[in-house]
């Protein structure tokens, strides 16, 4: 039944695959364990990218933890699961954060599509076209390496693992990288809460050395950037504010800008691709393949 439904959905997605004005780049941000600042980085990164003039969506793929509503200081009443159940429209659930930034409240991946039928999915794909102008979508996944997290990782153009220079966190980050490497060779790494760039590079080199020795030399593990340990970050989280908005002249804001610049370089290369997958409907076109 599920396979039959999935085939119908795939046919439907193909019929909805019109030429778009641009191809949205999907960036999944994940971590080996909780508490390493993944959602803080995702939210601030989305904000900084939107401030640069890009149209940005941030998709909360781990709504159970209610991280992003806290980061952006907004209230979420309904999420994407309500849309797939036919209990809300896409427009109902979207939360504008700034002029170029939209929060898309999600649901854990194993719930997505479970309740949808062809008629509801067709309506969803049509409604989701309002997000087809997105340049980039940040997918804030849950921590760990569960099946539904792998689904989002497989659907993304870029995958970035966040970790901190703590032995347990580094071990979990390596385990996550090893799991992701079974799906793709290119993986990004962000070192959070470091004392300096020197420390970030040292930890990255250590992880890379072990990974290349045990996973294989095809692995392309890149250091996307680092964020220094700073009281401004935890202070902002407590105040339900973005540190990039509250402290625009801080070192941590400059760290996020450097990370955003690295991601934007990939976006520029992506523009050379013939546009075919855009916005939220583009993401679901990829996710459908897993059902």
UniProtKB/TrEMBL annotation:
Binding site for ATP: 33-40
Family annotation (InterPro entries): MinD_FleN, P-loop_NTPase, ParA/MinD_ATPase, YlxH/NBP35
BP-aspect Gene Ontology terms: negative regulation of cell division
Sorted UniProt keywords: ATP-binding, Nucleotide-binding
CC per GO annotation: cytoplasmic side of plasma membrane; cytosol
Nucleotide-binding found in the keyword field: yes
Coiled-coil zones: none
GO MF annotation terms: ATP binding; ATP hydrolysis activity
PANTHER family, per the entry: CELLULOSE BIOSYNTHESIS PROTEIN BCSQ-RELATED, SEPTUM SITE-DETERMINING PROTEIN MIND HOMOLOG, CHLOROPLASTIC-RELATED
Protein name: P-loop NTPase
